[in-house]
Amino acid sequence: xxxxxxxxxxxxxxxxxxxxxxxxxxxxxxxxxxxxxxxxxxxxxxxxxxxxxxxxxxxxxxxxxxxxxxxxxxxxxxxxxxxxxxxxxxxxxxxxxxxxxxxxxxxxxxxxxxxxxxxxxxxxxxxxxxxxxxxxxxxxxxxxxxxxxxxxxxxxxxxxxxxxxxxxxxxxxxxxxxxxxxxxxxxxxxxxxxxxxxxxxxxxxxxxxxxxxxxxxxxxxxxxxxxxxxxxxxxxxxxxxxxxxxxxxxxxxxxxxxxxxxxxxxxxxxxxxxxxxxxxxxxxxxxxxxxxxxxxxxxxxxxx
Length: 304
Hints:
- Helices cover 41% and strands 15% of the residues.
- Strands 1, 2, 3, 4, 5, 6, 8 and 11 form an eight-stranded parallel β-sheet that branches. A two-stranded parallel ribbon has the order 7-12.
- It is α/β, with parallel strands linked by helices.
- It starts with a strand and ends with a helix.
- Strand 1, helix 1 and strand 2 form a beta-alpha-beta unit.
- The chain is built from twelve helices and twelve strands.
């Protein structure tokens, strides 16, 4: 039975991923700062290890066949103060560094290291298209994401495949952007963020899980993959599609100035976007379960 270690498993992606891994016959080891919280949220997992303060996590890394690194402070959980920015850095770069150093120094290395990244790598544009070969953008989030990936890539060229999914907006009934939008829409007060012209790269949580499973099992997959759906929509299109599924209007845009009051510099990550193409993912042969936004929303809201 293959052993998989997951960091950040109590986040939005984790529950679905752990369930799918168990169904596929994997032995799942969850690394968490709060073991009891992890046990409550992820009862299907096999082991819970305190990380990074615990004493046994390094041993578990050397025993694993696969490491999935999803750790990262939520970028939309408060104003981007200097303290918040430092948490964003340390939770991504610092955590990845700890794992990489143990893998590099181990005689028994995992077969694959899957380290999450984000489409924020590309910066923002209303006109450009971004494939995996596009350069990094500018600004805090792009620079942070670039450094995050560089940390993971320090183990390239050895026995461990390094695979980096650049993840878009994850659509799930469990939380994230969609969950935050629903109350306003249900009260007939929903609408796009700002003018709605910014690109909205999205992915259904089931497809993201499927992509990660393929990355584990397909030994030809290595390097960066844009983990987004192949249908390109803008924020206004997304709001209208959500309103249609909920049978609600999408007439009340969220003003950008209000986001700036709440999130400071972080408002940019919500009010701007990028058109991201999953070029390498399509070439890999991955078959999307949810290619269309409308079907994705119908599935999530029906099961919500």
